[in-house]
DNA sequence: GGAATAGTGTCTGTAAGACATTATTAG
DNA sequence: CTAATAATGTCTTACAGACACTATTCC
């Protein structure tokens, strides 16, 4: 089939059924030391009553994908994207039958943001909430066990799983952990982000020295916290994010076993 | 707008014009120590006479994206994807106006393969060829200077640029450099792949020791080449790809300046 | 023989991890 | 005071890069 024939066929729904393009956003934040993902409860079929990533249809030709993703994120959280949030394209999903209604290609995005207020339910969702990721009981392959309290719609368990893995990797070689924190933060708070996303404890002393040794990761403000920690300890110095886009040398996860075969 | 309204609107071309989904493949190989990309010369408008990445429309709902990309690659090269070729999703492009005919979202894929025969021109292309990447004169931002001998159609200069940058990064922490080589290869041949993709000379002795020290990168065959190098030197030992999926520790590029600000 | 190349040995600076230590704060 | 914690110091091991060196092959 030639290019032009295929082009014309695109207008013939009997040969190529209507295709929809959506964006879905894996928006992550941290509350009480636990990673949370923004989910909406579906108010109508298909998958009524199940939870889904916030997303929507893209007006292809009228807006670009990044803009559509930023719009979806702002609608649910009020977060403006040229701000402290990080938003990047994650991957695109187009398996047959992933939406029972029609063929849908979904461009997934990944967002990191600081702790923020609970979202408002939109008109098409019966509820919206920041949901603790561990409560979803995701397996490494992106499947969800039958006993989970909140079931995810479509292939969103897989998308979320991919987003979490991308997030774990991003913290290794970019300073994006700071996107989870307010503008000013302490090194122990930054360490808590790493421990929460990676799911393992880090050595406080070595982490501290390492962060300060990477050029451009953080810059000091000369200030300290107003008081010490909850259970004692001195006041911590306050930092803000530096100007580095990449961490050199990187902060590698200790858990990664040699040679993932 | 509710979910259902948007869903129905997807069937109304006056509100949401027909959308096409395509896959485009950045297929890379190495010839004579120079990276080459597979391109097809467009035989009809738009961009007639310009060169484009091989690609085509996806039958969303009837095939998944990976399968569609593998099909496009096989059509041009005869390479079967569950084989020695590496194929992975790169990114998705959907800027308004990127195709002058209609709104098109393109899912780009990245492929690495060993040196192979010249492709045959398809019915919709006046020519197809492995084109040396340096001859395209790409800039870092993915633009093409006006004087280039072969101009790229659509936003394919940008896609190719993104693919090359991904390829450079992939060589650092995966053993995918071996995908550019035949099943059996020497360490100096492997080094040539790195030097070609990264565009800088590597220290032969250190590279040799490093490759052998990474578990699972390569495994020896016990054989050597039949003769020495073109300009002298001993016979090199032959290796095949090992079972590692990730390199630990990674082979970092020397050129990367600290803290890309 | 001369030049180029495969592969190994050696040394040095840097960085990561384990552990110890000091100072400061809450309760 | 006691416990917890921020921040720094010390030591050991691993690794990257620079350089030297040997052995082998082509011309």
Overview of the molecule:
The first copy, chain A, is of the alpha+beta class. Chain A has 2 domains: 155 residues, Nucleoside Triphosphate Pyrophosphohydrolase (Alpha-Beta Complex), CATH 3.90.79.10; 68 residues, Arc Repressor Mutant, subunit A (Orthogonal Bundle), CATH 1.10.10.10. Chain A has 5 helices and 10 strands; from the N terminus they run H-E-E-E-E-H-E-E-E-H-E-H-H-E-E. The structure holds a DNA duplex (27 and 27 nucleotides).
In CATH, the topology of the largest domain in chain A is named Nucleoside Triphosphate Pyrophosphohydrolase
Strand count, sense and barrel status of the largest sheet of chain A are: 7 strands, mixed
The shape of chain A is elongated
What's the N-to-C terminus distance of chain A? Answer: 41 Å
Please give a quick description of this structure.
2 copies of one chain form a homodimer. With 261 residues, chain A is of the alpha+beta class.
């Amino acid at each position: 089939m030639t290019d032009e024939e295929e082009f014309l066929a695109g207008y013939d729904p009997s040969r190529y059924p209507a295709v929809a393009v959506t964006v879905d956003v894996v928006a992550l934040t941290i509350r009480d030391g636990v990673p949370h993902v923004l989910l909406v409860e579906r108010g109508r079929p298909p998958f009524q009553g199940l939870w889904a990533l916030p997303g929507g249809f893209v007006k292809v030709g009228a807006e670009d994908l990044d803009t559509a993703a930023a719009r979806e994120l702002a609608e649910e959280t009020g977060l403006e994207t040229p701000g402290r949030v990080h938003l990047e394209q994650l991957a695109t999903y187009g398996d047959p039958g992933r939406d029972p209604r029609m063929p849908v290609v979904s461009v997934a995005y990944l967002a990191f943001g600081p702790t923020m207020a609970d979202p408002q339910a939109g008109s098409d969702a019966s509820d919206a909430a920041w949901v603790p990721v561990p409560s979803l009981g995701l397996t490494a392959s992106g499947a969800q066990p039958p006993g989970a309290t909140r079931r995810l719609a479509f292939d969103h368990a897989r998308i979320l799983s991919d987003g979490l893995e991308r997030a774990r990797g991003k913290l290794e070689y970019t300073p994006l952990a700071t996107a989870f924190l307010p503008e000013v933060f302490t090194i122990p708070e930054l360490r808590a982000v790493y421990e929460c996303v990676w799911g393992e404890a880090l050595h406080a002393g070595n982490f501290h020295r390492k962060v300060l040794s990477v050029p451009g990761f953080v810059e000091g403000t000369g200030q300290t916290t107003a008081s010490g920690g909850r259970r004692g300890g001195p006041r911590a110095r306050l930092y803000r994010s530096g100007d580095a886009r990449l961490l050199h040398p990187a902060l590698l996860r200790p858990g990664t076993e040699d040679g993932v075969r």
